[in-house]
Amino acid sequence: MYVPPMTAWLLKEFEADDQVFGLFRTNFHNCRGYFGGGRHYFIETTERMTPYLSHPLRRIREWAQLQLNSAKGEWELNTDCVLQLLL
Q1: C-alpha atoms less than 13 angstroms from C-alpha of 58 in its C-beta half-sphere
Q2: pTM of the model
């Protein structure tokens, strides 16, 4: 599990600053897109993020959990949409 040194420093130095963490979170996926089913996105995100749940930095653990929650939400949203189309 790799965290760039500058990122680790920033999140350690400003660990108590919710605004810094919020900006980090907000800009992490800036201008990124994903194509494919929600299930694949959820599985890939789970595989990538799970190791970070045990990272020594609290903000990295929080970020990983937020990524997992977001992927799960996307999967549930896509599943609901498909079910509505089938009914």
Answers
A1: 8
A2: 0.78
